[in-house]
Amino acid sequence: MKNTSNESSENYLETILILSTKLPVVRSIDIANELQFSKASVSVAMKHLRENNQIEVSDSGFITLTKEGKAIAKMIYERHTLLTEWLVRLGVDEQTASDDACRMEHVISKKSFQAIKNHINE
């Protein structure tokens, strides 16, 4: 099972990816508003992601994903959307499905995820 730090980092990366499709630029305040976290918490997380070479922050405070950060974010986003879709097909309401998928996306093995993906796409 992944540790909470990895899960948190993955959630931040996924959020940056999603925001980058909606906004011309992504800033820490946008992430804080989206996740309903304090600016201080987001600032600490951005420092961690920058140190892990998963994001870059411009002098203007604009946040972009590095190649590595984008790869992780896309993987997590794919898991989230596919697991949500799967749970909805099973009869789970959209909100519960999305909430559960958010937890599942971080701990499911590649093998199990691929099996679900194959099953859905049959």
Can you offer a commentary on this structure?
- This protein has a two-stranded antiparallel sheet with strand order 1-2.
- The model has no long low-confidence stretch (mean pLDDT about 90).
- With about 120 residues, the protein is mainly alpha-helical.
- It has six helices and two strands; from the N terminus they run H-H-H-E-E-H-H-H.
- It is elongated and about 45 Å long.
- Helix 4 (about 65-90) packs across helix 5 (about 95-105).
- The chain has two domains: about 5-70, Arc Repressor Mutant, subunit A (Orthogonal Bundle); about 75-120, Diphtheria Toxin Repressor, domain 2.
Feature tags:
mainly alpha; 122 residues; single chain; 70% helix; Arc Repressor Mutant, subunit A; two-stranded antiparallel sheet; Diphtheria Toxin Repressor, domain 2; elongated; 5% strand
Main sheet characteristics: 2 strands, antiparallel
According to CATH, the fold-level topology of the largest domain is Arc Repressor Mutant, subunit A
How much strand content do the residues show?
under 5%
Q: Indicate the overall shape.
A: elongated
Mean pLDDT across the residues is 92
Strand order of the largest sheet: 1-2
CATH superfamily of the largest domain: Winged helix-like DNA-binding domain superfamily/Winged helix DNA-binding domain
